[in-house]
Amino acid sequence: MAWELKEPDEYQSSYLFKWGSKIAKLLDHVKVPYVAWGDLMNSHMIRDSDTNWGCLSWYGHLGFVVSDDRFDAAIRALRVAGLSEDSCYPEYCHWANGPESCRLPYPWPAHHFHHYVDDVKWVRGKQIKCYPVGLYRKSQWLWLLPDLPLDFPEPNDPNFMLSTDRRLPDWDVEGFGNSFHPIKLLTPVRWIESLICQTIRDLSLKGNRGRARHIPVEEFHQRLARQLPPELFHLDLLQQPFRTIYKLSTVGDFGMYPLLWLCLDRIWEEWQEAGSMPDPVLPFNNKTKKRRIEEYRSQHGFSRNKVSEMLCNGI
Questions:
Q1: H or E element: which one contains 141?
Q2: Is residue 180 domain-shared with residue 290, that is, in the same domain?
Q3: Alpha carbon 151 to chain centroid distance?
Q4: Is the distance from CB of 44 to CB of 224 less than 8 angstroms?
Q5: What is the block-wise mean pLDDT of the chain (315 residues), using blocks of 10 residues?
Q6: The domain boundary residue, chosen from 145, 171, 186
Q7: Coil, strand, or helix at residue 83?
Q8: What is the pTM of this model?
Q9: 264: closest CA among 218, 313, 207, 310?
Q10: 148 and 135, same structural domain?
Q11: Is 245 exposed, middle or buried (0-12, 13-18, 19+ CB in 10 A)?
Q12: Residue 169: cis peptide before it, omega within 30 degrees of 0
């Protein structure tokens, strides 16, 4: 499949949508089930260039969660398409250094490429303009979801949707939404639940850096939640305990934050004991996390059972 670097003049959409669509088309062509992730996924839920956590940041990375059994096929397809696996500079790729340098909420990929474009500038004595493209394994990032779609999802699919779905306020933001190949997305509800899952999984990261994962949920609540039709997003569509976590995350009362983290910690304990979540992809320490959970609960006067009761009954 040819990889064309030039675009007709009429296509002046953002880099994320334009090149995300190109890679989505490539993955569909080689029959790799996928769903958008990272900046590419978030930008469809909170398309706001002023956000300070990096949704449409100058990094502008493209992320795709891929079925584990087709992960190698996805790598081969991007290689054939001409994307580079050479080392890059931290100025343009936040994956250029090791995992310890990862700045959340950017997810760390299992494999990544660099897309170099004609719009170059001088960096460290070299001309370079690079955008990273990351591939993620489903088992590490979307472990609670059913199999990723190979075909386009139906309009009433509870888990997956297309970037060209007219129910999204920004589906045609620049007047040519249908001009691009559709990108497979998570529905807003599954996206929120998946971000909360990752917040929980990453609570044991060294330095407690996983807490940044929930920030996009707050941005979504402020900007898009009330614009969507109820069949696409409503509180009742969120499963427990995610509904409780969503309410605590978006209440806008800093006094409720201790309760939020008490609930997240309790879910982490339950999932750890049940062995129902994967390990983080960045360095972590479960022993230290367990000790800190006990200390935090004691500090705020809560017991395990009390927090579990709140999660079960909601707030």
A1: helix 138-141
A2: no
A3: 21
A4: no
A5: 38 66 96 94 71 42 95 97 81 70 71 75 56 93 97 96 87 60 96 95 76 75 89 94 93 82 96 95 91 94 91 80
A6: 186
A7: coil
A8: 0.86
A9: 310
A10: yes
A11: buried
A12: no
